[in-house]
């Protein structure tokens, strides 16, 4: 049974990671030039949130991780190691890639930590609460990764954004907040809408017949024959 479900979950992770990549590419094209140093506004986090609430913490993180690596196939911006010496010549670019790309979407899957509380909620208002908590924490986690990457590796006093000089940590908070916060504001009501219109999408119920067949490891025809007898 566990093997059967694991295959199904892996397939879902792959499908939703691909959907997240498509949405990320779409919104990246729409906002190209708006955020000169990267960033866009849209629904790319929603597929990760769906898997997180549908399947739990580890599948949510796995979906975000797959999405992160697929996103990297489209190209990455890596800091120059020329200004570093010793071990930092390797560690600095590695840490920047980790924060900007690998953890960026992976940490969104942390919303899956609230999957159980969402499913066990006694009423819809409580379900909304746990959706809001999970999406906000997951979205803020992504925001924190980009803020750290910006403050540690991308500060540049020769640029500015919304009147804030690029040489200060305030710049990275403002710049990354300009797209990360709207993403949270957009994705949260979309998840609430999904929970309201199609709750089974976030709370899958496996068919009892399928589960029984997997447990006994018997073909469906044999199970039906036994039931008839």
Q: How is this fold's topology laid out?
A:
Blueprint: H1 2-30, H2 46-55, H3 57-72, H4 88-106, H5 115-120, H6 124-153, E1 160-161, E2 164-165, H7 169-197, H8 208-216, H9 220-228
Antiparallel strand pairs: 1-2
Keywords:
single chain; 2 strands; 229 residues; two-stranded antiparallel sheet
Structural class: mainly alpha
Distance between the terminal alpha carbons, to the nearest Å? 24 Å
Strand order of the largest sheet: 1-2
Main beta sheet, described? 2 strands, antiparallel
The whole-number mean of residue pLDDT values reads 86
Low-confidence stretches: 207-218, 220-226
Helix content: 55-70%
How would you describe what is shown here?
Helix 3 crosses helix 4 (88-106) and helix 4 runs antiparallel to helix 6. The longest helix is centred in the middle third of the chain and has 30 residues, at 124-153. The protein has nine helices and two strands; from the N terminus they run H-H-H-H-H-H-E-E-H-H-H. The chain has one domain (2-74, 84-217): Arp2/3 complex 21 kDa subunit ARPC3 (Orthogonal Bundle). It has a two-stranded antiparallel ribbon with strand order 1-2. Residues 207-218 and 220-226 have low confidence and may be disordered. Strand 1 and strand 2 form a beta hairpin. It starts with a helix and ends with a helix. The chain has helices at residues 2-30, 46-55, 57-72, 88-106, 115-120, 124-153, 169-197, 208-216, 220-228, and strands at residues 160-161, 164-165. With 229 residues, the chain is an all-alpha fold.
């Amino acid at each position: 049974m566990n093997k059967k479900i694991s295959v199904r979950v892996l397939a879902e992770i792959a499908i939703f990671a691909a959907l997240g990549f498509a949405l990320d590419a779409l919104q990246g094209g729409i906002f190209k030039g708006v955020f000169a140093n990267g960033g866009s506004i849209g629904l790319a986090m929603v597929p990760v949130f769906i898997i997180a609430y549908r399947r739990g913490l580890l599948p949510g993180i796995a979906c975000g991780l797959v999405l992160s690596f697929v996103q990297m196939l489209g190209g990455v911006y890596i800091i120059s190691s020329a200004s570093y010496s010793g071990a930092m010549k390797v560690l600095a670019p590695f840490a920047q890639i980790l924060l900007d790309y690998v953890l960026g979407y992976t940490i969104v899957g942390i919303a899956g930590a609230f999957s159980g509380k969402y499913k066990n909620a006694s009423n819809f208002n409580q379900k909304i609460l746990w959706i809001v908590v999970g999406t906000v924490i997951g979205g803020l986690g992504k925001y924190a990764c980009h803020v750290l990457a910006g403050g540690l590796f991308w500060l540049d006093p020769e640029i500015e954004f919304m009147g804030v000089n690029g040489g200060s940590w305030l710049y990275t908070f403002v710049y990354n907040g300009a797209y990360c916060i709207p993403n949270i504001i957009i994705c949260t009501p979309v998840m609430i809408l999904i929970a309201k219109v199609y709750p089974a999408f976030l709370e899958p119920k496996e068919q009892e017949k399928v589960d029984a067949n997997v447990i006994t490891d018997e073909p469906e025809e044999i199970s039906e024959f036994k039931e008839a007898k």
